[in-house]
């Protein structure tokens, strides 16, 4: 299966999870590409201010994994911009995750996942699975990443 990971990561946490996912999916025989989103103004705090150096083309992939940080209890504006400006065929299976500082999903992650759901519904899409990974507590972080890596492949079409 052809899998695209579209990732926004300012300080590297989300990208490090994506790289682990890539490694694990490659081992399962999938074809995997990571597309890091590179904003021209990395500190833009509103989706209306975001400018990307290029937009990944996800048409032709069977599955799309979106990963981004939580910013101010919301999905990062860069990921919001990407979803708003991307055509997603209904046949594509979509999965989402966020990383956040706090160890509890109610401190931003859950709301960011609702952000994904809202934007994807405009595209007539729905995430098959959603994951929140808290960063500050190492033990919890490793457990969440481990769960993400083993759970997601079982939901691939
Ligand atoms: C502007 C900004 C706002 C943030 N807001 C939150 C927040 O509301 N809740 C939270 O748990 N972490 C928050 N964080 C922390 C990041 O979500 C967390 O460090 C994340 O793992 C960073 O991912 P990255 O390294 O891929 O950029 C914020 C970070 C930034 C830069």
From TrEMBL:
<dbReference type="InterPro" id="IPR005025">
    <property type="entry name" value="FMN_Rdtase-like_dom"/>
</dbReference>
<dbReference type="GO" id="GO:0010181">
    <property type="term" value="F:FMN binding"/>
</dbReference>
<protein>
    <recommendedName>
        <fullName>Flavodoxin-like domain-containing protein</fullName>
    </recommendedName>
</protein>
<feature type="domain" description="Flavodoxin-like">
    <location>
        <begin position="3"/>
        <end position="157"/>
    </location>
</feature>
<dbReference type="InterPro" id="IPR008254">
    <property type="entry name" value="Flavodoxin/NO_synth"/>
</dbReference>
<dbReference type="Pfam" id="PF03358">
    <property type="entry name" value="FMN_red"/>
</dbReference>
<dbReference type="InterPro" id="IPR029039">
    <property type="entry name" value="Flavoprotein-like_sf"/>
</dbReference>
<dbReference type="GO" id="GO:0016651">
    <property type="term" value="F:oxidoreductase activity, acting on NAD(P)H"/>
</dbReference>
